[in-house]
Each structure stands twice: as structure tokens, then as C-alpha cells.
Amino acid sequence: MRISAIDAYSTYLFHQGTNYSSYRLFGAHLTSWKQKSSVRFCVWAPHARAVSVVGDFNGWDVKATPMDRAKQGIGLWVAYVPGLHEGTTYKYAIKTASGEVILKSDPYGFAAELRPNTASIVKNLHYQWHDVSWQKSRKEYDSYHNPMLIYEVHLGSWKRDASGEVMNYRDIAEPLAQYVKEMHYTHVELMPLCEYPYDGSWGYQATGYFAATSRYGSPEDFMYLVDTLHKNKIGVILDWVPGHFCKDAHGLRHFDGEPLYESGNPVLAENKDWDTMNFDYGRPEVQSFLISSACFWLEQFHLDGLRIDAVANMLYLDYGKKQGEWQANKYGG
After folding, report:
1. DSSP letters spanning 77-120
2. Residue 325 falls inside a structural domain
3. Which pLDDT score is estimated for 322?
């Protein structure tokens, strides 16, 4: 994957809310640094006093691999670590304004450990696609006038293997494609697959907006599933959840010790009905993060569309709240 330089232009777009490929700027990327194979780590943590990268590679020592403040942008931290390889587990150790050190998964990580573990994994996405004819046919497909029949699927419960275990992305690909064809569906809508910690949420309380959940295999395994469906002339839609995120300690909530992805106003930040946090859509960096996530799934995983969950929660400040529990915006709405 082509990565972005940490320069004035890419950081300007990020802070303006218009860097729609910020996953090329942030996260862990295999690259070359000072003629050595390295991993470049980059994270946004503007309230942090210090940040380091920790993992098995340095014994989770918060002092071993410090990150530097990037010369460009506001609140960006960067480190080049030679000798690391794909599959390395890591987190960011963030020293907050109060002096507390907290461990966070990478918001832009491409892969994550299998629950209950929560570390991010260095991952270079690589897959040989075989859906060229499908990609070409999309340009001619008129979704407004052609029939469309969508089959919604929760991969964890749709079908089990002979021993009763959950099937992985690859094993489920052919049976799902054949069933959908036999039933004459045109598209599959996959329930949320962004990494999430709690099985019972069905993926609607996410932590990893750039990582396909490891419950069912690797990112390449998920690509294989999409590829197989496309080869069978079946479109793929992903249920995507930009309306709220979970409160788990390793996730986005109070990412650098302060509200960052959520509003600093508790009334706006917390979703009490779902026990989750609402994104702060007025913050440009959050806009770059979420739009980049949408583009990432469409571009890197060849998805044909996104079903956006909980839109009402995103639009209406009084959604699910009683009189006196919400605050109007500057227009009174």
C-alpha cells in the first residue's frame, strides 16, 4: 500500500477534515528508514505529554521506544522502528496531562488480536484480486432502475462447521455464495465487521474502524470472501457504524486522556441507551477519520456499498432522550 508522507499538505487536509485517505498517514506502515526495513508508527494524540510504542518486541516497556512530535501537524507523534515485521503486536503508551500512562490500540490499525486480547497488529494488506469483470460491470449497473434483493448476514451465526464452531471468512465464502445465488439475491449485506470486543454487540460497538474482525480470520481472508461473492456476480454491502463507539479502555474513549473522538460535553458525548460514546462530528480530525474509514472499506476491500447504522442518532440531538436530557444546537435544533 502506498503511504502518505507526514508533510504539511497531508496534515493540513487532516486538520481540515478533508484527508479522505488518512489511513495512509496514520497507523503502522512497513517502510524503509535510513536504508533499514522499519515500521513507521504515527498517531494523533494532541493532549498527550509523551507517547511510546509498546509490544512484545520491547517487553511492553513504555520507555523503550519513545515517539517524537511530528514537525508537521498538531498533536501528531511518530516513530520509525527498525527490524519489526508483519504480525508484530503493539499498542500506544500515552502519558496523559495528569501523568497517568494508558495503553491504547491503534485507531488506524489494519488488524487486531483475537478477543479477549486487544493489541493491534502490524499488517501490510496484500491480496491478488480476481474480480476485474465485476469491477467493470459496476460502471454499467444502474441501481436505481435494476432490481435489487439484499440478503442480510451475521457471519457468526449464519452457519457453523461440522464441529459446531464458527466458520472463517474463507470457509464460509463458497456456501454463502451458492445459497445467495440459489435464492436469487443480488447483494449480501454483512453485519458489522469492524473489530469489536463484545460478541453480544454483533459488531455495533466497534473499536477498530480499519480492521476486519479477527473472529473470522485475517484481512486477506475477508478479501477472499468478497472476491468469491463478486466472482459469483453478487454485490457486497457492509453494515458500517459511524454513529457511536464502545467505552472499552483500549479504544477511542478519552484516547489521550481527554475527550478526542467524542465531544468534551458529556451531554453530547455519551449515549446512555446503548452505553456507548457518540462521535464529535464537528471536529475536523474526526471527519477525516470517519470518511477515511468509509473510503478504506470501499477501496481496499472492493466493497460495493455501505449501510450506515443509527443515522437518527447522528442527526438528532434529542434522539432517545427525554426533555431536559439534551441540548439544542446554535440554531435551536
Report:
1. EEEEEET--TT-EEEEEEE-TTS-EEEE--TT-S-BPPTT---E
2. no
3. 85
- The terminus-to-terminus CA distance of the chain in angstroms comes to 43
329 residue type, one letter: N
H or E element at residue 120: strand 120-121
Asked if residue 80 and residue 113 are part of one domain, the reply reads: yes
**The 76-82 sheet, strands edge to edge:** 27-33, 36-44, 76-82, 68-69
| Same domain membership, residue 298 and residue 202 | yes
How high is the pLDDT of residue 273?
87
Structural domain harbouring 293: 132-315
The answer on 168 and 110 residing in a single domain is no
Strand 194-195 and strand 244-245: the pairing is: unpaired
Q: Number of structural domains, the chain?
A: 2
Looking at every residue in the chain, the average pLDDT score rounds to 95
| Best CA proximity match to 185, nearest among 150, 158, 141 | 150
141: its cell numbers:
449497473
Q: How far apart are CA 286 and CA 89, in angstroms?
A: 25
Higher pLDDT, 288 or 145: 288
Residue reference for cell 474463507 = 170
Residues 300 and 162 in one domain: yes
Looking at the structure, do residues 168 and 113 belong to the same domain, yes or no? no
Condensed to tens digits (0 to 9), the pLDDT of residues 68-91 reads: 999 999 999 999 999 999 999 999
Query: What 8-state DSSP symbol labels residue 309?
Result: P
- Within the chain, what is the greatest distance between any pair of CA atoms? 62
